[in-house]
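Reminder: ligand-aware prediction takes two inputs, not one.
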Amino acid sequence: MKNNVYDYIKITPSERQKAYQEMGFNAMISYGLNTFTGDEWGNGKVSLDVFNPTCQDTDQWIKALKVAGAKGVILTCKHHDGFCLWPTKTTEYSVKNTPYKKGNGDVVKEVSDSCQKFGLKFGIYLSPWDRNSEYYGTPKYNDFYMEQLTELLTNYGEIFCVWLDGACGSYMDGKPAQKYDFPRIYETIRKLQPNACISNCGPDVRWVGNEGGFARESEWNVVPSVQFNTQDIADKSQQDDDGSKMQISDPSKEDLGSRKVLSNYNEFIWYPAEVDVSIRPGWYYHKNQDSKIRSLKNLMNIYFTSVGGNSLLLLNVPPNKNGLYSPQDVDRLKEMGEILNKIFADPVSVKDVDADEFENGFDAINCTNQDDTCYAPKAENDVYTVSLKFVEPKTIDKVVLKEQCDFSQRVERFSLFATLNGTQTKIYDGTIIGYKKIALFDEIKADGVVLKITECRSTPYLEQFIAYEKTVEIPKYSKIEIFVIKLNKKFKDFSTRQWIKRQEKIKKKLGTK
Ligand code: FUL
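Here is what comes back for the chain with beta-L-fucopyranose:
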């Protein structure tokens, strides 16, 4: 195919996608009957009497998430077991028939109210797969689902995201997978909540493809439109309740959007990646996982590869049987928020910026502030250079870079250099920048920093180029730890492939997809 870069850079985000990307880090709350039974995937037949949190406090959840730095919250209003956390008119399998508040509770309302109180956005997870509904597998299910969606989109204020899970194990119930009416689902969401992004099995936000917290080294926002394919997403999603299987496949080397890949296609979309991952091994609370919460180092690693690598982070934190976040989770969230605040406490003040001649209105100084103005050079070039001179020498250990995505994602390769008394030391080599790139490097004393963009789709539009002082030791993996992690992944990848083969055989035997 004969494309040129202009075919790619004409692809830009919608307003709703921009608002979502701006949020960076959101949380998911998995809560429901599974919390009380210890299941990950309830079978849809569990007695509603089990749902009886004695001191549920959604303010406590939302406060803890806010402290960590999350900007929005997505609640599992209905998981695969079909149990609804709101008193829906569509089914009896809901909170209204549980002992909780003698059937007068509405957990969706409580969470959305708490979000409003603490200034977080609220989003919904409404599982397409439903193991309770008698309609599942028939065309009637689509009407039923639409009614549930409509209730959620009309009664709980502004919704920032509808998360459509591709996971389905209907073969376990001897049923074929439902053919969902996605066009109707999207149309309803657009009509009732035009600002909401549709994530995962939706057109706005791309599932990164695993649930272990791994992103690609180069995550592109512009990808071939074939990447948005609900069947494909469902096929790659969980098909068994052993969540650990989803934590494996390491996509870091996968290439979805380089020029080489794009050149094979002729239709492209803006489709940013989202990394969904749980703070615990399971999505739901299990007491025996209290000691298995991800370490701060691990969470920071996920943060820097997702938020710091042009992706979104969706961190699941599940409440316990009392209806509270356990102290272990609260503490970890607090540590996370505290360290992030410290890491980004001291942007280095700049006294001078030097760059190639700028396009009118796109002065180089624009990339040193934190608004959405940007720098753009006037003419296309082989290398674009921007040099910052600090007010005084500082010890730095990270640089934050952002492209102004109204002009698409353009930068394909760059390097950073620290300067001190006229000498230059290379401190970082990178590929994409996109919405946000956090470049971490070993601490170095510098009186300035230089960015050289060596590959770019036409001229760059640089919104931010800010160096940060080293304020705290960033929890990072050592080289040996990285080696062990990689080895582990390889081993798990192998066992997952064997597992998938076995699953395929079982499904073939059962005659289901
Ligand atoms: C998966 C589901 O099967 C898990 O139970 C969880 O809800 C996760 C967010 O998505 O695919």
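The chain has a mean pLDDT of 94. The first helix runs from residue 5 to 9. We will return to this case in the review session.
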